Amino acid sequence: MENNSIMNGKKRIKDTILLCLIYISALFAVGLLAGIVIYVFIRGIGAISPAFLTTVQSPSRGTFGILGNIVNTLYIIVVTLIIATPIGIGAAVYLTEYAKPGKIVSLIEFTTQTLSGIPSIIYGLFGMVFFGTVIHLGFSILCGCLTLAVMVLPIIISTTQSALKTVPLSYRTGALGIGATKWYMIRTVILPSAMPGIVTSVILSIGRIVGESAALLFTAGSAYILPKSLFGHIFNAGGSLTIQMYLSMSKADYTNAFGIALVLICIVLLINFLTKVITQKGTQKR
Fold first, then answer.
1. Please, what is the Cα angle at 244 between 240 and 248, to 5 degrees?
2. What is the pLDDT of residues 44-54, one digit of tens each?
3. Which residue did the predictor score with more confidence, 140 or 284?
4. Distance in angstroms (rounded) separating the CA atoms of residues 80 and 101
5. Residue 56 is inside which H or E element, if any?
6. In whole angstroms, what is the distance from residue 92 CA to residue 159 CA?
7. How far from chain centre, in Å, is Cα 224?
8. What's the CA gap between 19 and 23, in Å, rounded?
């Protein structure tokens, strides 16, 4: 019996080939990411300078800087997440913990999947007409953030819902068995256990927000002026880094375009790193 066990059995050629293909796929994914980062770094490092990062472009002076675009991008990331994250997590909690399986839940899940497949240019047209014209927000950062919030909601809902479903049923029955209310159980047991998946949804949303240009071009505009007030700036037009990169590419200014791309990659990596560090510390405290 021992010779026929799985641990002592002979390795089949098919298993070895499949294992090699898995390793090759993993190396290809890592190599693709490394290749993109290295290529952008080589093409864009020449544009990076203190003036490039700390000034605003001035056509009259002939200078080029992206400080205004960096500030606008951070505004868009923060405001969009403040709007979309509570709604997305709340919807996922409702679908997983409160809603009974049926036609309504199926309809909501189908709607979420459909929203995730709509092209961003359509979101931009919707945001321009509804948030910009009907609600009279015009070209503003807030208009762009509301449009992006609608875009990233499917990502947050579906990813958070999958994370909540991975929490063992024994956690729920154990908490309810000792007299905890359902909301207390969700707040203190379910959500902390699903926190890695929730953080993943936030990271994916940040990637979608930072990389978006079509929707913002119709809603937030392309201005690069520095904010005069902390909260009032969201009602002004503001172009993100992706908008400025698109404008630079359209003018065949490839050096500055790759410089902006390098800054974007650094911002995304930094935000992802800080998000994971904060989440790990929060999980350890709990």
1. 170
2. 888 888 888 88
3. 140
4. 30
5. strand 56-58
6. 9
7. 23
8. 6
